[in-house]
Amino acid sequence: MKTIQILIADDDLEIAKLISIYLTNEGYQVLIANNGREALDVIAKESIQLIILDVMMPEMDGLEVVRAVRAEHGIPIPILMLSAKAEDMDKIMGLTTGADDYMVKPFNALELIARVKSLLRRSIYLNAQIQPEQDPEEIQIDSLNISKKAHTVTVEGRNVYLTSTEFDILYLLASHLGQVFSAEAIFEAIWKDKFLESNNTVMVHISKLRDKLESELGGVKLIQTVWGVGYKIDP
């Protein structure tokens, strides 16, 4: 399972370490940069899914980093800015420069985690909308065969009896191997309706779908969970 990588760029090492502990406990992989230039070096070398960025840093401040990231990346990396400045104009400057969210120091660590998860869900949904649509008639994943035309799923020739909704979820994930879909993205793609934060419909269907697949696949876990983000099937 591929781990979500988050970059923390802050010259206050104590704050960076504190945030890192909370994020690591949530299952994320954390990288730390001490200044803006170091942050850009990390972004160039690593696959970063989200950036937590202090405004005031040596070498290059947070606003300059945001401008550089937005200029380099066609699909924007979510950026959460941190600042000791609470004035409205500072927040407006950060957001209009290209940040996705803004928190004032000192902050509640649990709120920061909640905002990180929200930004990741939104990013995955938008990326799913951007990706070219794939619509193969038949998908083969090891011994599993998915036929869109016949609307069937088989394992070594044995039928796996799925509901129409379970089939649609499986087909969505299998036709985009390696791509993580949030519960929101799955719900809106399958049910064609607006997702509500408290809605656990997707989780219930994923659970039933997993049980059926794992029973036929000898316990192999085909559908992977990226904790706090969504679901995927690895290539």
TrEMBL record:
It comes from the Bacteria. The keyword Phosphoprotein applies. The modification 4-aspartylphosphate is found at residue 54. GO terms for biological process: regulation of DNA-templated transcription. Residues 136-235 bind DNA. Residues 5-120 form the Response regulatory domain. Residues 136-235 form the OmpR/PhoB-type domain. InterPro entries: CheY-like_superfamily, OmpR/PhoB-type_DNA-bd, Sig_transdc_resp-reg_C-effctor, Sig_transdc_resp-reg_receiver, WalR-like, WH-like_DNA-bd_sf. One of its GO terms (molecular function) is phosphorelay response regulator activity. It is found in: Cytoplasm. PROSITE patterns: OMPR_PHOB, RESPONSE_REGULATORY. GO terms for cellular component: cytosol; protein-DNA complex. PANTHER family: REGULATOR OF RPOS, STAGE 0 SPORULATION PROTEIN A HOMOLOG. This is DNA-binding response regulator, OmpR family, contains REC and winged-helix (WHTH) domain. It comes from Paenibacillus catalpae.
